Amino acid sequence: MDILNKLISASNSKSSLSAFIDDYNQELYDFLLTQSYRDLKRYKEDIDRYILSHLKVIKTLDFDLESTRVFVLILLEVAERFSFLTSFQRLFKLLHKNDCELGSRIQASSSFFIGVRRISDYEKRVDQILHQLSVAYNVEDSEERVVGTLINFYAQVVHNFALQNQDRVLLLRDHILSKREDLSFYFLRHELIDKVFSIDISDHIVAFEKIKSLLDIFLERTNKYLSFTHDSFMMEEGTSYVDLLGCDCPDFFALRDIAVDEYQKIADKSVYYSLDKGVRVLTSESQLFAYLYSYGKMHYNKVTSAFKALPDNLNDKCLEIIDWGCGQALASVCFFDYIKEKGCELIVHQVTLIEPSKIALKRGSLHVKKYELAGNIRTVNKDLDSLVDNDIVSDNTHIKVHLFSNILDIEKFSLKKLISFIENNFQGENYFVCASPYINYLRTSRLDGFMSSFSRFDSFEKYLDVDHEKGEWINGWTRSIRVFKANIESSIE
Ligand SMILES: C[S@@+](CC[C@H](N)C(=O)[O-])C[C@H]1O[C@@H](n2cnc3c(N)ncnc32)[C@H](O)[C@@H]1O
Fold first, then answer.
1. Are 381 and 228 in contact (CB under 8 A)?
2. Which atom of ligand 1 is nearest to the CA of 326?
3. Of all protein residues, whose CA lies closest to atom 6 belonging to ligand 1?
4. Residue 473 to residue 371: CA distance in whole angstroms
5. Ligand 1 mean position to 113 CA, how many Å?
């Protein structure tokens, strides 16, 4: 039985639904949020029907529990994505009533899904919607989601008012377009918006269908990676960056200084926006420089604050480091700088770098190679969902240090798959260093879900569990850090 059918069967009473949510939180997250749009679309009507017919039971759940809030937030996200109007309205009200944190994009959607009677309602709210989307775009969400929400908004306007008020719909469209020059509305320059806004709206039904189908094509296209290189080892060679690095071992700040110089020569804001807040799989050297220039210091501070929580007993031990979604391997670089500065006597037997971007991975292994301490380096050019057992070579007797720097919060891979991959491939003593920005409650729940799945091992020990929103840590940065240990045994069920 698939997860949706299991959910439906469990939803006949408060107790069975809440037990189910507890047991299957990761499967639900993966099914409803991480799965590709194309695959999820097959269940669209079933999900809407599920929400509407089980609202009565959902309302009885205990909203003081994190698992309930995450579950209902996930349903709301799906309702928003597919424009399930009634489901969205009911779930939004329910979460609002229970004081749950709702992100800016969801707030923006509520402004056009709830309480709209006349076109003047849209006209009055459009600036607020754009402002909320700009916060989502600049701080919280992927470009894909923000552009998707804006298109859903325009589709609603066309559907509801293009028949009687075509001129005012066009004025509203022009008003949105007039914001394009402002960099905080950079998402308005997306090519899909040009395509959608140029659709003839004289027949509002045809126009609505065309907008929806363009949006579908766009959402189905995303989440695909370029083909991977299966060479055994990848490293940048023979480039001017290799010359810039020179022969000595740099540290994180030397690498950042190079990136600052190089990015200032490029001085193109569009490169910065192409990073999509650093989560995009990078394809050019300009993006590598822009990333390190824009996010480097923040990531350095975040991940170093997490290393400080590791226990001292790692001294003198033989380690393997696994840097997941490593990008340019900055987390590994920061780890080496940290142990050098602390004067730890560690033997690093092997560093495994896993990353879907070829250009970033090659640079990452070049960075790591500079550290004498690094031992053997292995590169795996894949996204996390594509990993298979023989991609990884690990020794049960070594201590494994897993670096998850700014990766667990990204909703692009299945946590469930990742956890079973780790359990199958990393037996023995494992330390996990997870550092992400605090984006919102739902994203941080991924870090919690990841950590709690290892808590079933007797040896589980938690060293740090901290969430800081803007203003609660340094420099206006946010952080969610989880540092813990688990001895993974093969026999545990
Ligand atoms: C915010 S960056 C973090 C990079 C690096 N860990 C750091 O702290 O600098 C996110 C990284 O995740 C990678 N990424 C995106 N989707 C991924 C996926 N599905 N599986 C693995 N890595 C992914 C991106 O290519 C990018 O390098």
1. yes
2. 6
3. 326
4. 31
5. 33
261-271 core/surface letters (b: 16 or more CB in 10 A; e: else)? ebbeebeeeeb
**pLDDT for the residue 1:** 58
The preferred substitution site among 355, 363, 422 for testing ligand 1, maximizing ligand atoms within 8 Å of CB, is: 355
| Ligand 1 atom at minimum distance from 281 CA | 25
Q: Output the pTM of the full model.
A: 0.90
What single-letter amino acid sits at 196? V
**Joined tokens for residue 264:** 């200032």
Give the model confidence (pLDDT) of 295-354 as tens digits. Answer: 999 999 999 999 999 998 887 788 999 999 999 999 999 999 999 998 888 889 999 999
Contact 442, 77 (CB under 8 A): yes
Centre of ligand 1 to C-alpha 251, Å, is: 21
Q: Measuring from atom 8 of ligand 1, which residue has the nearest CA?
A: 405
CATH 3.40.50.150 fits 241-488, yes or no: yes
Bridge partner residues of 147 (DSSP): none
Instruction: Give per-residue burial for 41-78: e unless 16+ CB within 10 Å, then b.
Output: eebeeebbebbeebbebbeebeeeeebbbbbbbbbbbb
Compute, in angstroms, the gap from residue 93 CA to the centroid of ligand 1.
35
Q: Which residues line ligand 1 (CB under 6 A)?
A: 278-279, 281, 299, 325-327, 330-331, 355-357, 360, 383-384, 405-407, 410, 412-413
Residue 367 · residue 385 · CB < 8 Å: no
Go through the chain and tell me how many residues it has. 493
Tokens standing for 459?
């040896």
The DSSP 8-state label assigned to residue 12 in this structure reads T
Q: What is the pLDDT of residues 346-389, one digit of tens each?
A: 889 999 999 999 999 999 999 999 998 888 999 999 999 999 99
pLDDT 10s digits, 260-295: 999 999 888 889 888 888 888 999 999 999 999 999
DSSP string computed for 228-265: PP--S-----SSHHHHHH-SS---HHHHHHHHHHHHHH
- Which residue's alpha carbon is nearest to atom 10 within ligand 1? 279
Domains in the chain: boundaries: 3-221, 241-488
- The sign one gets for the Cα dihedral 38, 44, 46, 48 is positive
Sheet with 376-380, side-by-side order of all strands: 376-380, 347-354, 318-324, 399-405, 428-436, 479-488, 461-468
SS3 363: helix
Contacts of 137 (CB under 8 A, 6+ apart): 143, 146, 185, 186, 187
Atom nearest to 323 CA in ligand 1: 6
